[in-house]
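During the no-cost extension, the postdoctoral fellow (Dr. R.K.) reprocessed legacy sequence entries with the updated structure-token encoder. One reprocessed record is reproduced below for audit purposes.
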Amino acid sequence: MKRPLATALAFASIAAVSVTGFGMPTAHASTPATGVSAAAAASTTTDVSAMRQKFNAYVAGMDLDAATRTKLEAAGASDAAFTAAGKVAVATLQAGLTNAGVDRDANPALNPGDYECGPTAMNAWVKDQVAQIDPTSWSWYTNGILGLSPDLLVQYWTLMKTPSAPRDTSFGPSGSATNEMARTFGALQNFWDIDGSGIALVSYDAKLLADTPEAAADRAVVYDGISKISGFASILLRLSVESGILSGTLAGFPGGVDNPMFSVNSFAIDPTHATGDDKATLDMLGVTRRIAMGQGLIRMWDDLGLGRVGDRAVLAHEYSHQVQYDDNLFVTDITDEAEATARTELMADAFGTYFTVSKHGESLNKAQTLQDLQTFYNVGDCGFSNPGHHGTPNQRYRAAEWGADLAKSQSDQGHVLPSLAVDAAFEKALPQITAPDAN
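Re-encoded structure tokens follow.
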């Protein structure tokens, strides 16, 4: 089956988690004085009523055409209408990002009891990072108003920002990983048999949340873009984000906008393969083909002792998704979404490690190869019923191990296999990679 791009985008990422899943004119000039509480999670009738009043006050001061004003006033007419409009807006924005809707749990086709699966070092690291964040600040970032949160703004900015050359983009603390990311990206473009000239490498970070004129201008661009999808969502995001910034809510995050929990993920997207409404939305926002590397992810690998190898492994995984886009490898006969997604992600693990171990790729030594395998083990998950399931830790380890073995077993070490040949071999090996392994 061929899934729509909104679905494929969710699965062209390194892990089956988002920041909200962990439990992760200038804007200032145009923000009204009617600020919203930084603790913006709407949990009571009083919260919803107060937020609705702020929304209505904001709308009353806007210069709108009659049809738009009628629509927005209807959304603010009652608490029920306001809440309903919020649910629609969240679903609409998430559908253009990392989900194809809200609450998409499915009946598991896989039996969790058949697989060995449990928390990894990544899970422990995330738990520790969240524990250091002020709960009110964390609620503001992950919940916002009616679920329209700063998290969504950061993700949309990562899609919309204009790319720079990799060497002109800062990766890692104080740019410590920039040269390596740029070099590896260039090596990937030369390694695989696709045209990678149109693929950009961008930073996934939260710098647009800073209280600076430059960041405010960037936020204004995103608000304007989102308004083309949902005017209601754009207004609530503006009220939520700007009030939090002005009230100093970011002080609750150690390191401010550089806190790693803002960007513990990475993704790849190729909008040229989108169709219908997905393509129209991405074109309207000016989204171009890219790989986004999370600054928080780079920090995490350093903290877990996987450092340079982890960074390269993730970048190779994301570039493998670009290969899948070009080779149409998202198409599968597997009907269960969780199982289909796991296939795609395990393939990217295998392709990525084939590159990192190959003599024409990163040529990792034995110790570094083990770190590569540990990287993919750590981003495994146990979400057997989640359409975004990426494979268990053991499965991801085995997929990466398969890619390493493929590279090492080639009789001609000077030859790089065509991507479709790697895929054909992987499809034959997939049943063994995903075989039940519980004792």
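Residues 1-11, 17-44, 98-110 have pLDDT under 50 and may be disordered. The first strand starts at residue 200 and ends at 204. The remaining legacy entries will be reprocessed before the final report is submitted.
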